Amino acid sequence: MTSPNDQSVSWKQILAREHLPKIALLAMALWLHSVNSMLSATTLPSAVEEIGGLNLISWAFALYLMGSIIAAASTNLAVATLGLRKAMLFATAIYIVGCTLCAMDPVMPVLLVGRVVQGLGGGGLMALVFIAQDRFFPNHFVPKVVACLSVVWTLSAFCGPLIGGAFATYGLWRMAFWAFFVQGGLLIFGIRFLFKKYPIEADVEPQKIPIVRLGYLAIAILAISLAGAHFHLLRSSILIIIGFASIGFFLARDRGASNNRMLPLDTTNLHHRIGSGITMTFVLSMSIMSFLVYGPLILISLYDLTPLTAGFVVMLEALGWGGAAVIFSGVQKSKEPSLIRIGSLLVVIGLIALALALPHGPLWLVIICTIFGNSGFGMMWGFIIRRIVDAAAADERDRAGALIPSVQQMGFALGAALSGLIANGLGISETMEKAPLQNLTFWLFASFVPLGLVGVLLAWRFTRIDNDADGTTQRTLQQS
Fold first, then answer.
1. Does the CA dihedral 146-340-408-468 come out positive or negative?
2. Per residue in 369-410, pLDDT tens?
3. All residues at 6 or more sequence positions from 468 whose CB lies less than 8 Å from its CB, including other chains
4. Domain 13-204 -> CATH class
5. Contact 26, 401 (CB under 8 A)
6. Where exactly are the structural domains of the chain?
7. Topology match between the domains 13-204 and 263-469
8. What pTM value is reported for the model?
9. CATH code for 263-469?
């Protein structure tokens, strides 16, 4: 007899009238966060010309990241207290306030406050998307839903800088933030309409927000972000240590919490599917950040590309992710373990290929390597999400869903910081000669290969563990 999770789902079913409004709502919520996280790359230079604060510009990225990760980590508690509908409305309202502060700021410190508030709202919306998709759709719909959302994320990689640059080019950088203020208002209308039509609230007990644990998480994110943003060998190393220690304190304190845990109980248990899957996601997310951080600079310096052309090459990395997510979203559940293992291997092969191809070219080979590595992550991403959430007990599913995006972003943050440590430790500069830059480029990617191999081992463990909803662990007898 075929279980629901083994059923194949067609795109016609996914995009039917019953489900399309739900997907549109989730896509809109994800769009607001993902585009805005990249919008500042092209609006902040114009903002600095008008209001000053060049020395604070790196904080705009770090503070947005801090706000989004803190919000994502605590979203399940907000849902337990407010319900999913009110939590989404609240996160959108916070996002709108952040857009208002950024659009009206007279000085850079006000803009930085706005970025924190935007991050809180945007990160909350992103985590709520993961919780809502579990409630909106049957489990066997998830890979195709994730594929749809991956396309949205891919488009944002291109549209964020493009939208910001278009407004900034005409001296209207503030209007970029007002544009997303308006879109936030449209999302509020959509939430109110959709939840009235599809009531899906769960009966849960309100929880108290853990301020101390969120403080540890904030310290970790800021320390890790600043370690890469302002490189100094001793200071950056100390900041990395502080960041890891703060994460450890956060995990230990959360595990010991009695009734308002932010994370699933098995988050740090590598013998459980949740623990192995989350750790794999964290490690592999760290390993792929070098190209996003330093790819444009290297392409401009070694291949004489314009910033716009280099940006298009970087965009292809996101297209590889989104395209693979769509292509592989319809495979049978029995094939998922193999795809996760292959995907993790492709990430490592992509790192090796970039280490060898990017220093010397040709450019077409670099582009292929760029698409190749990220497509590995895309082909397995929907299945990772489904297997992690499916392994959680009924009262842990919201925690598991909200944990996935926050862990992914923490991995991105730490990967960016480590990329900065490696590049700056090797003496990167805008005036660097070609030969030293080629050598640096090789090590910038080769240094992450061991980390990627750890991710591959975790992927093998993740796909070999079978957990029921009560947390019982057993090895599958049949190796796929």
1. positive
2. 888 888 888 889 888 988 888 888 877 777 787 788 778 878
3. none
4. mainly alpha
5. no
6. 13-204, 210-259, 263-469
7. yes
8. 0.76
9. 1.20.1250.20
